[in-house]
Structures are given as C-alpha cells and as structure tokens.
Amino acid sequence: MERTFAIIKPDAVASNQAGDIISIIQKEGFRVAGMKMKRLSQVEAEGFYAVHKQRPFFASLVKFMTEGPVVLMVLERDQAITRWRELMGATNPANAAEGTIRKRFAESIERNCVHGSDAPETAALEIPFFFSTSELL
Length: 137
Prior knowledge:
Alpha-Beta Plaits, globular, 137 residues, alpha+beta, 4 strands
C-alpha cells in the first residue's frame, strides 16, 4: 500500500463538487486514511507551495488557495501516487483526458480543482504538513 496527499481546492469546494470528487476517489479503489476541511492561512499556503516561490504565479496561487475552504486528504492504495495523478488528469483541464477529475470539474489551468503529490518524496513532505500520525487511520 502506498499513501499520497490530495487537496480538493477552493474552487471545487465553493461549487459543491467535493462530494462528487470524494465519491469518484472511493469508487476508484482509494481508501481515505485521513480527511479534514479547513481554510488555509496565508502562512500555510506560502509554506506548502514554497517550492514555487520564485515562479510568477506564486502570489496568485497563494491568493487562490486561501480564498475559501479546502478538503485535505491522505489517500491509500496500491500505486496511490501514480493512480491519483492519472485520475486527476492534466494540470490544464483543456489537455486532460475524458473522465478525469480535472476534465469534469476544473475551470482552468489556475483553478484546476485538485492537487496531488507527484512523487513518494513529495508525499512524504506534504502529508505531515497537514496531518499528524495520530490523525491517520
């Protein structure tokens, strides 16, 4: 079993798509090992996305991620990272495959409804950023 980190972003939460997205996740065989809803502070968003600090989109990304509540999740299954990234679809929903979450729910490349860890090393950093060991089942 492998774990990955996922976020249902403010755009999807605001448009009441979180339940549909969670349903898809579970139907695809993921087990939700941890889940919580919260509104990220500016400090949390800046810290979480610090890898992008020098990129031109950093400020708008932080603004977007703090505009409303998000759903934070730890997902578990065989090949969780690869399978979650496949289920999410391409970052730009215009390029995402039919049936993927971003193709179905994302508004744009900037407002793309979900986040997922891109590698085991990333998941190992992202999961404890928001979840303590005792919060994971």
